[in-house]
Amino acid sequence: MSATALETLTAYLDASGLSHEAGARDGEVVVELPGEKKLSTVASVVVGDSAVSAVAFVIRNPDENHADVYRYLLRKNLRLPGAAYAIDKSGDVYVVARLPLSAVDDESLDALFGVLLDAADSHFNELLALGFLSSMKKEWEWRISRGESLRNLAAFRRLLEQETGLTAPDGTL
After folding, report:
1. What three-state secondary structure class fits 36?
2. How would you classify the pairing of strands 93-100 and 51-59?
3. Neighbouring C-alpha atoms within 13 Å toward the C-beta of 123
4. Are 58 and 128 within 8 A, CB to CB?
5. In sequence order, what E strands does the chain have?
6. What is the predicted pLDDT for the residue at 19?
7. DSSP 3-state assignment of 59?
8. pTM (2 decimals)?
9. C-alpha span between 156 and 138 (Å, rounded)
10. CA angle in degrees (0–180, nearest 5) for 131-43-24
């Protein structure tokens, strides 16, 4: 592990105001990135002997439409600078990136965290709609039948109203 790269990473995180803490592994820092569509994205950044690797959770294994979800991710990989979507053995989706130690500076770290956050956050709603629509429809119907708040589904209102034929009552969003 490069102590210099770890010091640069820690100083960058302190200066940027990003919440972070030491991870369980040697050279690991766990960073919380604030989002817009997703409340936050947690990234594990590990400073190794030759590179800095970063892994951020995107979504759990989709309930349905696996081929469509993976096709969507593979197409996005074409335009993802320095990073790629990947899945683990459980099918959960992550975005991964690596930087050579020689490239670790404030500018490259800013780009790294920007790519991680954009990849995890900007496509979040599309991935949920592709991989979890049936569950979202059931929750929409259940919440409407009981007069519950629909606030957590507000981003999908038009889609869910169209799919279920149920319109959100006033005051539930």
Report:
1. coil
2. antiparallel
3. 25
4. no
5. 19-22, 28-34, 40-47, 51-59, 83-87, 93-100
6. 96
7. strand
8. 0.89
9. 13
10. 125
